[in-house]
């Protein structure tokens, strides 16, 4: 398992008990896992389908450094299954493991699509390939995004 990402636990990441808020950690895990999945599958249209139960076995405090590790455990037809572990670099304890996270590869219509991958590609190779495919995804033009934001602001102001 590769531990690529480290996080520094800051005041905004804490719960009222003064320890790392589970919601912050889950957001980091989902993002890290999504990056892993899109680089493995060469596709930005990948969504979280399933996460197995999560057992927080230890925590972290402000100022601690934690690291997130991911590995692919199964390549399906349209899905990829990952295992995740989070460790506290300061206490040297495991914080949690997620045995199974499933991501589904989608086509332009948002339907599950075969990805054709069967084995893990390591970081450099995965990113080299991803760089090419990332350029092919149409970006939302700024003017369109501005209109969407303006529409949302107007709708919110009506409530
Ligand atoms: C992802 C989505 C398109 C899949 O639709 P679906 O009808 O379940 O698709 P399928 O039944 O064809 O399954 C697709 C893959 O997911 C797997 N899968 C489906 N349900 C699963 C479950 N409960 N647990 C694990 N894997 C599951 C299937 O085995 C299949 O994988 P495979 O092709 O490698 O065998 C649909 O469920 C969806 O849009 N969900 C919302 C996703 C989302 O918004 N996520 C949060 C934000 S990223």
From TrEMBL:
The keyword Hydrolase applies. One of its GO terms (biological process) is acyl-CoA metabolic process. This is HotDog ACOT-type domain-containing protein. Keywords: Hydrolase. GO terms for molecular function: long-chain fatty acyl-CoA hydrolase activity. It holds the Pfam family 4HBT. Belongs to the acyl coenzyme A hydrolase family. It comes from the Bacteria. InterPro entries: Cytosol_ACT, HOTDOG_ACOT, HotDog_dom_sf, Thioestr_dom. Residues 1-109 form the HotDog ACOT-type domain. GO terms for cellular component: cytosol. Gene3D superfamilies: Hotdog Thioesterase (3.10.129.10).
